[in-house]
């Protein structure tokens, strides 16, 4: 069975079964009368062509195909995230052919040839886990949103069912609002729009045929990417953990059953969307210490396991596992240079600047800002006066790998 890899063009994700590329020089052969061997004239490096055999599939395959068509139709170079080469600036080297096979439901395959347009050295052949996590998180969120919309159809429902659905969605918004730390997640306008939804707004939503994901998705994706990513990860995990378990009514009628299914789907979407965004934030996080990296890793792993236990979307389950793999690999890369937190002590009471130099700067074997090291030492150990760090007592200090 062929392996499947993630890729994207102009930010639009797709899957890849196979890819190839060609390298070398452009050579013009000059042949002369009565000479057995031609003269090969080197005209410089040949254009680097990258061929990708890709496809899109799943519940939202048509929307994903249309997004790819729009990306291919856009003029000028764009960013290709290649499964092995990472980010490359490319242009299309001709039309892209899509194909649809009989008996294959919900899949569009294509073959595209790109030409590298940047003038840098060719990227190293290594996975770009952060980019792959970003691609996979967008795909997972699209799948979760499509599943939510299929389970929470507003048009044609009884008013009591619609009211129950909107009320549950507003409960999710209140959880996000409560978790926000000084607008850390930066989704204030999206929250206000959902929490302020009234009868006429609900009617407009139904009449326009919009799915519930149009209201809920922005409150998860609107978080401020300039914020500290480790804090955003923790905040999103708290939102995921707050998703309720919706109990099925003992003897439900048709209306009660519809309400229960919709409310359960919304709770699952809260858990899934928050976990997906937590994974995305974790892939961008630069942990301050190895301990912080370890705690983030454990929390993210457990959150995905909780999603897998509760989801009723089998396709999403597989994608979540892949997203977790990429996100945790990126987190490990970002935290590889982070220091350990160790316990040290001095035999005598000394100024904090001296302790910071002896225990952090001198022992690190690398250039460390002394004042930053001192500040971290004081913060970690709640030293009352920087001139007197008590001797004979255990102190927490950072230790950088040599």
What are the main properties of this structure?
single chain; 402 residues; alpha+beta; Elongation Factor Tu (Ef-tu), domain 3; 3 domains; two-stranded antiparallel sheet; 11 strands; 48% helix; flat
Overview of this structure, please?
- There is one protein chain.
- The protein contains twelve helices and eleven strands.
- It has helices spanning 61-73, 129-151, 159-179, 188-195, 199-207, 213-221, 229-241, 254-284, 290-310, 314-334, 352-364, 370-381, and strands spanning 5-9, 12-22, 25-30, 39-45, 49-57, 78-82, 86-92, 97-99, 107-116, 340-344, 395-399.
- It is flat and about 90 Å long.
- Strand 6 and strand 7 form a beta hairpin.
- Strands 1-2-5-9-7-6 form a six-stranded antiparallel barrel.
- It starts with a strand and ends with a strand.
- The protein folds into three domains: 5-116, Elongation Factor Tu (Ef-tu), domain 3 (Beta Barrel); 129-334, no CATH class; 340-399, no CATH class.
- With 402 residues, it is of the alpha+beta class.
Quick structural summary:
With 402 residues, the chain is α+β, with helices and mostly antiparallel strands.
Portion in beta strands: 15-25%
In DSSP terms (H or I, runs of 4 or more residues), the helix count works out at 12
Largest sheet: 6 strands, antiparallel, barrel
Task: Estimate percent helicity.
Answer: 40-55%
Beta strand count: 11
First-residue to last-residue Cα separation: 44 Å
Report low-confidence residues grouped into runs of 5 or more: none
Sketch the topology as an H/E string, one letter per element.
Answer: EEEEEHEEEEHHHHHHHHHEHHE
Number of domains: 3
Summarize model confidence as the mean pLDDT.
Answer: 80
């Amino acid at each position: 069975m062929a392996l499947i890899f993630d890729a994207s063009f102009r930010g639009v994700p797709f899957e890849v079964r196979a890819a190839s590329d060609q390298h070398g020089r452009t050579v013009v052969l000059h042949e002369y009368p009565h000479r057995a061997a031609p003269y090969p004239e080197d005209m410089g490096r040949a254009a680097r062509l990258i061929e990708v055999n890709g496809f899109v599939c799943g519940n939202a395959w048509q929307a994903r195909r249309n997004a790819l068509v729009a990306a291919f139709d856009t003029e000028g170079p764009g960013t290709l995230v290649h499964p092995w080469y990472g980010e490359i600036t490319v242009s299309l080297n001709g039309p892209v052919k899509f194909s649809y096979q009989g008996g294959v439901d919900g899949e569009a395959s294509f073959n595209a040839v790109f030409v590298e347009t940047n003038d840098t050295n060719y990227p190293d052949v290594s996975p770009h886990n952060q980019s792959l996590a970003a691609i996979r998180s967008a795909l997972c969120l699209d799948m979760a949103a499509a599943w939510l919309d299929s389970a929470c159809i507003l048009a044609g429902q009884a008013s009591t069912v619609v009211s129950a659905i909107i009320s549950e969605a507003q409960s999710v918004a209140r959880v996000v609002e409560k978790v926000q730390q000084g607008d850390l997640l930066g989704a204030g306008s999206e929250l206000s729009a959902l929490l302020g939804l009234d009868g006429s707004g609900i009617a407009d939503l139904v009449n326009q045929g919009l799915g519930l994901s149009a209201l809920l998705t922005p409150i998860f994706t609107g978080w401020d990417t300039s914020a500290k990513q480790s804090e955003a990860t923790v905040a999103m995990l708290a939102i995921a953990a707050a998703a309720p378990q919706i109990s099925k009514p003992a003897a439900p009628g048709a209306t009660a059953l519809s309400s229960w299914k919709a409310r359960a789907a919304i709770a699952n979407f809260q858990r899934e969307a928050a976990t997906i965004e937590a994974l995305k934030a974790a892939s961008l996080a630069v942990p301050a210490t190895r301990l912080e990296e370890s705690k983030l890793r454990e929390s993210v792993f457990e959150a995905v396991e909780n999603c897998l236990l509760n989801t009723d979307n089998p396709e999403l389950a597989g994608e979540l596992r892949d997203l977790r793999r990429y996100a945790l690999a990126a987190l490990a890369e970002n935290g590889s240079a982070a220091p350990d937190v160790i316990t040290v002590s001095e035999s005598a009471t000394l100024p904090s600047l001296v302790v910071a130099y002896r225990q952090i700067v001198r022992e690190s074997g690398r250039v460390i800002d002394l004042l930053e090291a001192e500040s971290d030492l004081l913060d970690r150990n709640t030293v009352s006066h920087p001139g007197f760090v008590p001797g004979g007592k255990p102190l927490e200090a950072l230790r950088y790998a040599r």
